[in-house]
From TrEMBL:
SUPFAM superfamilies, per database record: WD40 repeat-like
Chief location: membrane
Organism: Arabidopsis thaliana x Arabidopsis arenosa
Vps16 C-terminal domain mapped to chain residues: 528-835
Domain Vps16 N-terminal: 8-429
Name under which the protein is recorded: Protein VACUOLELESS1
UniProt GO cellular component terms: endosome; HOPS complex; lysosomal membrane
């Protein structure tokens, strides 16, 4: 009898059964759908209702102000707001995929609301064409809209995320003078088109056009593919005629048309063949058309809802109140003033169990459970009959349970599946558990207080992640948290959204008390971002709460930027230096640098070694003046002196600093300033003296360059300056440098000897050697001559060397082996020099002869 009562509610359309169970008795009061514009979100989403300003309606006990009200699918009011927007009449209203309510008024202005009836700023526009010509019709799809203006222009937004309006190509017949002929629009969604961009289908009179972003095409249809007189009406013709209404199937493959002569025509979009051609009783276009899954088409006139299938007679449902058709992926929700129903094709598993007279294995298994409950032996007989198909019967019961909205029937079907599973060893036992988990989630969200009547097919298509997102957006955080825990999903998103919503909703709660409430829940999820919640608190004007929250953030990379944004620079600097992350420290340094006065900034970083060192390293390369101020404020005068000295060197690298350039004057002044600063500290006496001499040398070199007009002196050493003066023949200048810098006689002889050898002035060199006895002998003269590769000149001075070892080595260097051997033999070094020379002059036997006495002695 149970099977009979279930199947008695079904309607047969040719060979397919349809059912229309009631989901909710609507909880709202005084809502008349005929007096309002209504927008219903897919997947059991919210319902937006606003009084239709295009109709003259009688006001009862209500305000004259129009209100936008948002209900859940059970008719429970979620939110409302007064509608007081300019721009003319409300033309269209629909929910986007992310449950944002899109409202388009006559001048093309777009107003957006969230589920709490809060206006989302800024308001957008469909463009100048819509503003000038006014919008007359809107067609929405998942995440876009196309608008038709009074001037016949099509303006489209392909994605609500970008909100970029695009003007589509002009369609023949949509000119302003031709608007008297019937026009209707529909859209083929991007996921079903070859280009991946939405296609707008426009019917103008007898023609149907496909409008894409940059082109317009005309569609031509062939004759019906089915020519059976029993399945088609006698008056079915080949020509479609004027189209008054059209819609695209859920999979984008079929186009349903209602013609001027009352025919409903379904056309294959790929083959362009007519699949269904049925003549209705009325030639008046239906108020609404919708696909019921992929098996039938619904047409609604006043009080009559007709369902047309591929073949056979249609099914009629009669209503004494207005209804709204809400297409879903597996059926159509039917919303009326009093209730919400779900019209769908009966699933095959449900049909096999509850169809009157069914003897399928699933039906026998369901019946066996009934006999088992009544302790009847008939239960065993049924199991024996279906033993070979028991696993299929169990699967059918599980599948049928998933498609049921009635909890009692779900439980009965799952008990039947569990009963059969006990006798089926090869069945995956996780299937029952998985279905139970899914049904528990679905039953929870189907509760009228939540009002999301998802079917199992819709739930799988929507995914649990999106469902939880919609629950938290509706502030159903407790249910979202329990579902997340039940499905082993990440709870962080739910808890964070709850925390942010709690802060927003608690403006008068003290910060300390609210912090305790938040931490109690935030600690449930390890690794949760306290910084994100603190950011929201700061945005809500709760800066103290934000500072307390961010203290619990373990990740410095998130903690420090937030501390800076809420003005806690001191704490941010401490956290950044403790983390050891130089990038974070620099972030804080640059932020404080811009926000605080210099002295205050210097005081903050002075006590923190890492921050101070990083600042100094950066400022040395880019901000010398600021670094000077820092060193002066901290009493590091010598560091300022070093900076000045470095600046003088950098100034010398300037290409203009040559040939007596005036840049040398500032350089000398900088060095003198550095000397003065060095002189103020006892620890830097050497640096002070060095700076003084450097300045003196620069002055002399500057004068030399000015007099010689050669940029070869500045920044060279004292030795090089003297050598260059001698090479240029300016002995007076060389003697002056020697005197100014107290160059010793020993160094003077070396420098002058080599300088004269460089210019090969051998006469002057010889004269210089005879002026007085050189303080360190004639070695500088010998070295200078040998270095200039002048052996003859070297022989003038080698015999004058008093040290036999030096003399011998000099002879050896110019290749005079005999003389070198004589010197080595006279040297009292135990034959060491002879041994070295023997290795140098390998082919000369004289060294072997001279070494023999030393070898005999050893």
């Amino acid at each position: 009898m149970a099977n009979v009562s279930v199947a008695a509610e079904w309607q047969l359309l040719y060979d397919r059964y349809y059912r229309k169970p009631e989901i909710y008795q609507m909880k709202w009061k005084h809502v008349d759908l005929s007096r309002n514009k209504v927008a219903c979100a897919s997947f059991g989403g919210p319902i937006a209702v606003i009084r239709d300003d295009s109709k003259i309606v009688q006001l009862y006990a209500e305000s004259a102000l129009r209100k936008l009200r948002i209900f859940n699918s059970a008719g429970i009011l979620l939110s409302e707001t007064v509608w007081k927007h300019p721009g003319g009449r409300l033309i269209g209203m629909s929910w986007s995929d992310d449950q944002t309510l899109i409202c388009i008024v006559q001048d093309g202005t777009i107003y957006r609301y969230n589920i709490h009836a809060e206006l989302i700023e800024p308001n957008m526009s469909m463009g100048q064409e819509c503003f000038e010509q006014n919008v007359v019709e809107c067609v929405f799809w998942g995440n876009g809209v196309v608008c038709l203006t009074e001037g016949g222009q099509l303006i489209c937004i392909f994605d609500f995320k970008t909100m970029k309006p695009s003007k589509l190509p002009d369609v023949p017949g949509l000119a302003e003078d031709d608007l008297l002929q019937p026009i209707c629009l529909t859209v083929r969604e991007p996921k079903y088109t070859m280009s991946g961009i939405a296609e707008v289908l426009v019917a103008v009179g007898d023609d149907i056009f496909v409008v894409e972003e940059d082109m317009v095409q005309t569609i031509r249809f062939d004759e019906p593919s089915i020519d059976d007189s029993e399945m088609q009406n006698d008056d079915s013709g080949n020509l479609i005629g004027v189209v008054q209404k059209m819609i695209v199937s859920p999979n984008g493959k079929f186009l349903t048309l209602f013609t001027h002569d009352g025919r409903i025509v379904v056309v294959d979009m790929e083959t362009k063949q007519i699949a269904i051609d049925y003549s209705c009783e009325s030639a008046l276009p239906p108020q609404q058309m919708a696909w019921c899954g992929m098996d039938s088409v619904l047409l609604y006139w006043d009080e009559d809802l007709m369902m047309v299938g591929p073949v056979g007679d249609p099914v009629h449902y009669f209503y004494d109140e207005p209804i709204i058709l809400i297409p879903e992926c597996d059926g159509v929700r039917i919303l009326s003033n009093t209730n919400l129903e779900f019209l769908q094709r009966v699933p095959d598993s449900t049909e096999s169990i509850f169809k009157i007279g069914s003897t399928s294995p699933a039906a026998l298994l369901y019946d066996a459970l009934d006999h088992f409950d009544r302790r009847s032996a008939k239960a065993d007989e049924n199991l024996r009959l279906i033993r070979s198909s028991l696993s299929e019967a169990v699967e059918s019961c599980i599948d049928a349970a998933g498609h049921e909205f009635d909890v009692t029937r779900q439980r009965a079907l799952l008990r039947a599946a569990s009963y059969g599973q006990a006798f089926c060893s090869n069945f995956q036992r996780e299937r029952v558990q998985e279905t139970c988990r899914t049904l528990r989630v679905l039953n929870a969200v189907r509760d009228p207080a939540i009002g999301i009547p998802l079917s199992i097919q819709q739930y799988k298509l929507l995914t649990p992640v999106v469902l939880i997102s919609r629950l938290i957006n509706a502030n159903c955080h407790l249910l979202a948290l329990r579902i997340s825990e039940y499905l082993d999903m990440n709870k962080e998103v739910v808890i964070m959204h709850w925390a942010c919503a709690k802060i927003t909703a608690s403006p008068s709660t003290p910060d300390s008390h609210l912090l305790e409430i938040l931490l109690d829940k935030l600690q449930l999820c390890k690794g949760i971002s306290y910084a994100a919640v603190a950011t929201h608190a700061d945005n809500c004007g709760r800066r103290k709460l934000a500072a307390m929250l961010v203290e619990h953030e373990p990740r410095s990379t998130k903690q420090v930027p937030l501390l800076l944004s809420i003005g806690e620079e001191d704490t941010a600097l401490v956290k950044a230096t403790e983390s050891g992350d130089t990038d974070l420290v620099y972030l804080v340094i640059f932020h404080i640098w811009q926000k605080r006065p210099p002295l205050e900034f210097f005081a903050m970083i002075q006590g923190r070694v890492l921050a101070r060192d990083l600042f100094v390293a950066y400022a040395r390369c880019h901000k010398h003046e600021f670094l000077k101020d820092f060193f002066l404020s901290t009493g590091q005068i010598h560091e300022v002196a070093f900076l000045l000295w470095k600046e003088s060197w950098d100034m010398g690298k300037n290409p203009m600093a040559s040939k007596g350039s005036p840049l040398h004057g500032p350089r000398i002044k900088l060095i003198e300033k550095a000397r003065n600063l060095f002189s103020q500290t006892k620890e830097h006496t050497f640096e002070s003296k060095a700076a003084e001499e450097h300045a003196k040398l620069l002055k002399i070199q500057h004068e030399l360059e000015a007099s010689t007009k050669q940029a070869i002196f500045v920044d060279s050493s004292i030795n090089d300056t003297i050598r260059t003066c001698i090479v240029l023949g300016n002995n007076r200048a060389a003697i002056k440098v020697k005197t100014e810098f107290k160059v010793s006689d020993k160094r003077w002889y070396w420098l002058k000897a080599f300088a004269l050898a460089t210019i090969k002035d051998w006469a002057a060199l010889e004269k210089f050697s005879k002026e007085k006895r050189p303080p360190m002998g004639f070695r500088p003269f010998v070295e200078a001559c040998i270095d200039a590769d002048e052996k003859a000149e070297a022989l003038k001075y080698i015999p004058k060397l008093s040290d036999l070892v030096e003399r011998g080595e000099a002879y050896a260097r110019i290749g005079m082996a005999k003389e070198a051997a004589d010197c080595a033999a006279q040297a009292n070094d135990g034959g060491e020099l002879l041994e070295r020379f023997r290795k140098t002059f390998v082919q000369n036997a004289i060294f072997d002869t001279l070494l023999m006495p030393f070898q005999g002695a050893s």
